[in-house]
Design goal:
The structure holds two protein chains of two kinds. Chain A contains two helices and no strands. By secondary structure, chain A is mostly helical. By secondary structure, chain B is mainly alpha-helical. Helices cover 69% and strands 0% of the residues of chain B. Chain B is built from seven helices and no strands. In chain B, helix 2 crosses helix 3, helix 3 packs across helix 6 and helix 6 packs across helix 7. The longest helix of chain B has 23 residues. Chain B starts with a helix and ends with a helix. The chains are: A mainly alpha, B mainly alpha.
Amino acid sequence: MTPEEETEALLDALGRGQVPDPADPAVRLLAALLDDVDQRRPQRSQRRSSVSMTPST
Amino acid sequence: MVVRYCRARLGRVSGQYHIADDVAQEVCIAVLSALPRYRDMGRPFASFVFGIASHKVADALRSSVRSAVPTQDLPDGPDDGPGPEETVVRYIEVEHARRLLARLPDNQRELLLLRVVSGLSAEETGNVLGMSPGAVRVAQHRALARLRQMAELESA
């Protein structure tokens, strides 16, 4: 598969609402934009942020 | 598809998509008005619709009219929406996406939005932008590579 064909497959998957490669920063950004325009909560399995919650004592 | 496209192009104003949704409604009205003049020339109907949508969005960006922001009534029950932390994280991520997309050349940004947000095929996107499907595939590869490079540079 050529790089152009890989990009084609990746964009097709994103257009269908899938996240083909959550490690790809460009894919993550486009997926976040898609979630936002659809006003839905992220339903994908990838980690969306590095924020952690620590109980206060 | 039209609503998603308008929202992706115009973004939120005061946290709401009301302007983008109004423009999407204008697009639908314009498509209905233009239908009697529409002639099937063998091109996908989507290219006709997104040709109109592209012009309407450009008009909205030029006028940049900021009308009053409608607000919902106060909710009378529990809010099932995302909490404050998730809302902020999401906002930051989406604004990051918009900022990087805005740095792409106009043609590359339009191409990515039509392919991903509107879900058009390479052929349909080519018809909207006046490009061959082959040229779309080459340009979208460059656009995604550029977006990836900018994202990696910012996170480094």
